[in-house]
Amino acid sequence: MPPRKHLIQMSGAPGSGKSTLARRLSKELENGIVIDHDVIRSSPLEQENPCFETAAKQAYDLQWALARDAIKQGVCRVIIDSTCNFPKILHQGMALAAEFGYTYWYIECRVMDIELLDQRLRAREPMLCQRSGVDRSPKAAEGRHEENGRELFERWLMYPCRPDDEKAIITVDSTATPMKCCDRVMEQIGRRQRR
């Protein structure tokens, strides 16, 4: 019997634990690969005089090209680690899964406490494209106009961009330990596979 093929699209506010859970899932699912949007986006920002907006667009294009290439190489479990704040990004993930016959999963890491998100962001070593606090823009975006950080986070928390197919959604309370979050995701995936 061929192995199950999954395309997992992570979602959640910065600091919600997406990357930690994505890496843990890649091990649990065996032969999983994580396409890390922040790594892709930070790389061009290390160049002289980078454009933050251009790097963002290029990073999304490249993340989908890498995911497609991994699928064509036979990787059965592809995890897209990005915030997934826009319908276009959501639809690109679903379309790629459908094109290659992969089961699509949308995994939302939820932390409703903005202060906890802020603590997590301040505690990590940020990449150039990452915030170092709720009210702190990414280092590579310093000097450009941005809306109030708290308002932005409140919008992300209250109005997440989700697929219409509720069976594809797994929401985890990522104030729990990474192990508990991973166990919940694996339980949900296993339950759907048994149907």
Automatic annotation (TrEMBL):
Pfam families documented for this protein: AAA_33
Taxonomic superkingdom: Eukaryota
SUPFAM superfamilies xref list: P-loop containing nucleoside triphosphate hydrolases
InterPro entries for the chain: P-loop_NTPase (IPR027417)
Name of the protein this chain belongs to: Zeta toxin domain-containing protein
Organism of origin: Fusarium coffeatum
